[in-house]
Amino acid sequence: MMSSSRLLIISAIISAAFLTVGSIRLFPDENSSFQDASSDFMEAPGYQNGPECSVLPKNKLLLACDPSAVHIAMTLDPAYLRGTVSAVHSILKHTSCPQNIFFHFIASGSSHGLLAETLSSVFPSLSFKVYTFDEAIVKNLISSSIRQALDSPLNYARSYLSEILSSCVRRVIYLDSDVIVVDDIKKLWKTSLTGSRTIGAPEYCHANFTKYFSERFWSDRKLSSVFDSKTPCYFNTGVMVIDLERWREGEYTRKIENWMRVQKEERIYELGSLPPFLLVFAGEIEAIDHQWNQHGLGGDNVVSSCRSLHPGPVSLIHWSGKGKPWVRLDDGKACPVDYLWAPYDLHKSQRRYLQYNQDLDIL
């Protein structure tokens, strides 16, 4: 865990170092083939368990179901692979028991094999499994949103974790690909979901909750009554602790799908996969400290604007919004906070910069 003021000092130091390296595009655009980029990453350092860590099975098939392991789910999208690699790198670097983490990656069928090979080459000792997401199950339920990236079927995979992951997985942390973790992920894993709560996430009750749904929704009592007897607050679905057993028992995937069908007919929101989660879970979330999702650093969903960290401790930094740090860095248009992401970047074109940062050893 770091303070936001210390991170700002670090970003200034890294920014000066980064400018000496030069600015070039380090990752293919959306029209480039993934084949061209699959070997463009350096191998990550090997991270070992500390002496205080439990001894868990070395067999990856056994570890995949071990409730003592920390289970993390992420999507694998070729366009966001650089972000995913950096996120994994940051998690391994800052946790005390990296060998006790199992990653569950979800990819579309067309890119499954190449993505798995890339992860294996970058993280040779990483315990993980790549699952194929059948996009057909959700494609016809998706309505167009405010930003095209939000309409990707893979963006909805988080709603199907209870079905995609093996039934032996009881609990999982879901993370977006545009995050870095600067604290021990075990702390987040230990979040207690009290009562019958299924999801834990930072809540933002100061946000104007009504703006996430249309006037038509709020004026229709049949629809808006879903929040009766609740105090709903906005939460970001890019960082969630999920009890998969309770999810399966509550059939929450079906409930989310039902709201997506309503959206098809009534047009009650604009923000992709987030609003159905709010409709099902808002007001019934286990509130987690805000330090575990300093989000919004990519600007809003339309403009890639620069934003600052909020005051206070920081455990997870999240570039939700249109702007992504790897794109802004490559374009020479980086925001100050983007330099906090750069040290975890394992793209080969970053070798000189990464060596400089390792010498500083500040993150």
From TrEMBL:
It is found in: Endomembrane system. Keywords: Cell wall biogenesis/degradation, Glycoprotein, Glycosyltransferase, Membrane, Signal-anchor, Transferase, Transmembrane, Transmembrane helix. Its main location: membrane. The keyword Transferase applies. Its EC number is 2.4.1.-. GO terms for cellular component: Golgi apparatus. GO terms for molecular function: glycosyltransferase activity. It is an enzyme of class 2 (transferase). It is a single-pass type II membrane protein. Pathway: Glycan metabolism; pectin biosynthesis. InterPro entries: Glyco_trans_8, Glycosyltrans_8_dom-fam, Nucleotide-diphossugar_trans. The keyword Transferase applies. GO terms for biological process: cell wall organization. This is Hexosyltransferase. It comes from Brassica carinata (Ethiopian mustard).
